[in-house]
Amino acid sequence: MSTRVISSPRTTGEPGERILRYSLAERIHHWVGFLFYFYCLITGLAFWSPYMYWLAALVGGGPTARFWHPWFGVAFTISMFWMYAMWDRDMRITDADRRWKAAIKSYIENDDQNLPPEGRFNYGQKLFFWVMFYGIILLLISGIGLWFVEGIPSSLRWLRYLSVTVHVIAALATIGAFIIHVYMGTAMVRGGFTSIIRGEVSTAWAKTHHRLWYEQVTRRQSAGR
Ligand code: HEM
Fold first, then answer.
1. 159-169 pLDDT, tens per residue?
2. C-alpha neighbours within 13 Å on the C-beta side of residue 118
3. Does ligand 1 come within 6 angstroms of the Cβ of 34?
4. Could you give the CA distance from residue 140 to residue 132 in angstroms, rounded to a whole number?
5. What is the pTM (predicted TM-score) of this model?
6. Is the CB of 30 under 6 A from ligand 1?
């Protein structure tokens, strides 16, 4: 069966047809962001506990990791703001999300056919995005406190403690969200992973997981015909 990829307009809903879910730019930004985040993750864990210090050896040792960790943090912040510029509109919480949230019991019970339809991203994906977005803002602010800790006078020692506490809490929140994201994207939702690699999904996948988005895309396409 021949496969046709819909990049923007024109879908007929034929079984072999595929829809572009992520443009090349979106995919590149996603994976560049991942590299920056992953570097911060392994080096941050190495600093956090002596049991995980061996992770620093993977990236050149403790002093090298200490030097680059904040810079990669800055790079991840920039990449996260880039994602914000790309996806901000798609990530806003809508009435469809509120209906989906109200029916979350069906999701937990694997009763997907009773879930209200979702747009390009579902409520969980949006929550993940906002946890990462606000998480990185907190990590940046507290990270600057830790980066230039000698510059904080001893009379403001509480600011040092606050920086450490906020940095650890924000890091743990993003790590929790990241683990769920990877699990959902690789093990739970089949077809999701290929979409962030190759960019496309089948029409059946789009209908099943993001029906409102599917309808929007097809409506736009038939109007352009
Ligand atoms: C090994 C690491 C990662 C894997 C395997 C992964 C996997 C995926 C997959 C499969 C999708 C497409 C989901 C769909 O459209 O149904 C996706 C989307 C996305 N990813 Fe990742 N990702 C990773 C790391 C990250 C990191 C570090 C971020 C940092 C912000 C991130 C942010 C996003 C966002 C915002 C989306 C779009 C909405 C969503 O699906 O949550 N990802 N990712």
1. 999 999 999 99
2. 28
3. yes
4. 12
5. 0.89
6. yes
